[in-house]
Amino acid sequence: MPKPNAVKYIDYLSSRPIVRHLIYSSSVIFFLGIILIPPILGIALKWNTIGQVFQDSGSMSRAQSAIFASFAIAFLVSFLDLIAGLPMAWFIARGRSRVLNVVDTLADLPFIIPTVALGYSLLLFWGTQGDGISQFLANPLVSPGWLLIVLLHFAFSYPAVIRVLVGALLDYKMVYEEASRTLGAAPLTADRTVTLPILRSNVIAAFILAFARSLSETGATVIVAGIFENGSVFIYNTRNPPVGQPILEGPMVFVSFILIAAASLIYLVIRILGPRLKMPIKRVWPVAERKLSNFKVKTSRDAVSTLTFLVFVLVPSLFIVFPIAGAVTSGTLNEAVAAVGVWQTYWQSLILSYGVAAAVTFLNVFATLPMAILIARKRWGNGASTTLDVLSNIPMIVPSIALGVSMSIFWKSFAFIPEFALIVFAHLSITYPYFVRTMVAAVEGVTVDLEEASRTLGGRPFTVFRTIILPLTKYSLFAGTIMMFARSVDETGATTAVVTNLKTVPVLLVGWVKLLREGQMSPATVALGAGFLVLFSFIILLLLRLVVRGRR
Amino acid sequence: MPEVKVVNATKRFDQKIVAVDDVSLQVHDKEYFSLLGPSGCGKTTLLRMIAGLIEPSEGEIYIDNKIVNKLPPEDRGIGFVFQTYALFPHMDVWDNVTYGPKVKAWEESKSETVGREMLEMVHLYERKDALPHELSGGMMQRVALSRALAAGAKLLLLDEPLGALDAKIRFELRYELRRLVKDLGLTAIHVTHDQGEAMAISDRIAVMKKGRILQVGTSRELYTNPQHVFVANFIGENNFLEGHVAEKSDGGVQIELRGGLMVSGSDTSVKEGDRVVLAVRPETFTIEKGHRKKTDLLLGVVERVRYEGTNIRYEVRLTNEDVVVVVRPSLMEEWFTTGDKVTISFPSAKSYVFPYPSRGLREELAVE
Which CATH number fits domain A1-45+336-552: 3.40.50.300, 1.10.10.10, 1.10.3720.10, 3.40.30.10? Predict the structure, then answer.
C-alpha cells in the first residue's frame, strides 16, 4: 500500500537537520515553558510577599514546623518502606510457593486505590470511633495526626517500593550469588555483601520514589491529618481558610518555595552521592549470619514481612469496601445513579477529572516523545542528556501542592487563561516525569544497531521512528499513557492550588470528608463517592495489566 | 582428598524436562575429569548438582564418601569457576580473590598470604586494584580461577571456563589450567563442548548426550575404541557407511554396503542379517590412483580436494554414490586431483561396527 503523501513529506522533512532540531527544541521549550520555568517564575513574582512570614513569629513558627514535618515524615516513611519492603521483595522474588503469586498481586492493590480513597479508608480503619480496629477499643487506635500520616504514607508508598525491588531482584543475575555461595558464604552473607551492593542503584531509586510520594501527597494527607500540619496540609489550609478569612499569600509562597527548593536539593544530593554510598560489606560474621540464614529464621522473617504487609498496608487499604457495601445496600447508590443532590456535582467533577486526564495525556504524549528520544539517544551530547534527565524528574519529587501554588501564581498573571487550562497545565507538570521516564527506558532498550540498519537501508529519521522505535516501544507507550492518565485522575494537591470554581473528583472528595467531620455529609455518600473512583481506577489499571501481560 | 561419586542421579525440571537421566560416575582423587557433550546434554546440570547449586530429583551424590545431597554449596568445600566468571563487579581483583577466605573468617594474615600466592600464580598480582570491567577475558578467567582456589577448595568444578575466550588464548590457557590443577594436587571436573580441549587436558572423559553418559574413558580409549555411534562421531571425525552383515566369522564380519560393495569389519556383537553402521576414520584410509577390483577395496572418483597445510582432504564419491572423506599427510604422498579415479581401502581392525540406531542414523549423530 503506497504511503500517504503527508507521511512521505514528513519522512522527507525529517532528513533535514533543521527540522529535527526544531522538533527537539520545541520539546525542550515545551518542557521549560510549561513544566519547569512557570513554577520558578511564580515564586519570583510573589517573592515580595514572603516578608509577611518573617514579620509574624506565629506564622513563621507554624511554617517551619510544617516544613520540618514534611521532610521528617518523608525520610521516616522511606526508611520504613525500605526496611519492610526489602525482605518482602526478597520473599516474592525468590520464593517458590504459588501463594506468592497471590501476594504479589495483592501488593499492587494499594496502587489501584486513588490516594483520596486510601486516605479515607485508613482514617476509618485506624482513626474513627466505631470502625475498623477502633470498634474493639474505647478510643480510636490512632487519632488523626502525624502518626496516621506516617501510616498512610507507608501504605501507599509500599507498593511502589516493592515493584522496584522485585523487578530488580528478578532481573538480577543469580550467578553472582551462586559464586559467593560456592566460596563459602552463607545465604545472608551473600545477600548482604554481593546482591545488595550490586542492586544499590535500585535500592536508592526505591528510596527516592517513596520519599517523593510521601513529600508530594496532599489529598489523603489532609483527610488524616486532623489539626497536624505538614507542608502540604499547611498550604492546603492556607489556600482554603475558614469562611470570611483571607488567603495569606506570604506564608503559602514561603512554604511552597522552601518545599520545592529543599526537595530538589535533596533529590540532587541523593542522585549524585547515592551511587557513592558504601555498603557495609567489609566485615562478615560467618557464624551469626549462618544461623540467621537457617530455615526457621528465614520462615519467621517471611512471616513477619507478610504480617506487616497485611496489617499495615492491605487490610487498612481495603477497609473502605465495607462502607461502600453499606452505601450500596442503604439506597445511596440509587441517589448517586439518579444524580440527586450532591451527586450532580460529583458526576460533573468526574467528567471534568477524566476530561482533564484525556487532554493531559494527549498533550504529553506528543510533547514528551521527542524529549525521551533526546535523552535516551543523547542527541545533544551526554551533558545535555543528563541535565534534561535530572530536570525532567524534578516535578515528581516536588510536593504537588507547592508546585500548584507557584504555577497558579504564574498562570493567573495571564488573566485570559481559563480555569480548565490552569488545571491542565498543573496536571501536565505532575504527569510529565512519569511518561518521560517510561519512554526513556523503553527507547534505551532498543539497540542503536536497529536504527542504524534502517538508515543504511534507506530509512529517513521519521521512517526509523515510526517503523522501528514506535513498534518496539509500543507497550511502554501504552503503559506510560495509562499510568499518566491514572495519575492525572488521582491528582489532588496541585489541583487544589490552582482551582477556584471547578472541582475534580479527588478535590471534591477531600471537601466531602471535611463536611463529614462537621456533620454536614453522610458517611455513606463519602464512601460511595470514593467507591466509584476506585472502580474506575481499577478498570484503568486492569487495562494496564493486560497491556503489560500482552507484552510478556 | 576428594573423590566424587554420582549414583543414579536424575534431574527433572517442571516434571517434564529430564536434564540428567540416571547418571552414575566416579571421579578419582586428583583426577582431571571432563564432562564432554553438545549444548543441552546435561553436563552443566550435572556439575551444578555436584556443586549443590541444584538438588537432584533422584539419586545420590558423594564427596569423599559422604552423601552431600542436602549439603548447601558453601559447606561442600568446592571451588567453582563459572562460564561468565561471575566476578563481583563492585569489588576489585584483590577483594574478589580474598572473598572466600574472608567469608570463612580466616585470619587476615592468612587471607592476605593466600590471596597474594594465588594472584602471583596466575601472574595478576600487579592488577590487584583493577575492577573486573577493566580486565581482558583471559585475565578475568584467571582471576576467577584464583578466586576459586584461594578459598582452599580441593575439588575444583569448572563450567566451560574457556568458552568465552578467543581461540588462541583458549588454546594457551587450557594447558595452564591443567598444570595449575596438577601442581596443587586438586581433583577437577571440567565441563566443555570442545572435544579438542577435553582430549588435550583430561585424564578421563565422560561423553554425554541427552542427559545420559554414553561412554567414559581416556582420550585414547574414546578415540580408538568408541562404544557408541555418537561417540565415534563426536570424538574426532568418522565416515559412516550403512549396510548389512552378510557373513560373520571368528575373524570379523563381512558387510554388504549399499550398491553391493563388500568390506570387512572388526568383530562385534552383531549377527548375520543385522543392519549396521560401519565407521572409518578419514586418516585410516589409504588411497591409490586407478580402479582395482577386489573385495575390501572401494572404488570411487575424487570429487573435491582441500589443502589444509599438514593434510590434504579428499572427498571421494564411491561407486554406490556414498561420499567418504579421506585425509592424508600432504608432504608424504602423491596428490590427486578432482576427477581422478581412485581405489581406497582401510584395515578392518581400525574400523568400528555399530548396530543401526533405532531412531535413525541422522538423529543419533545429531549434536542438537
Answer: 1.10.3720.10
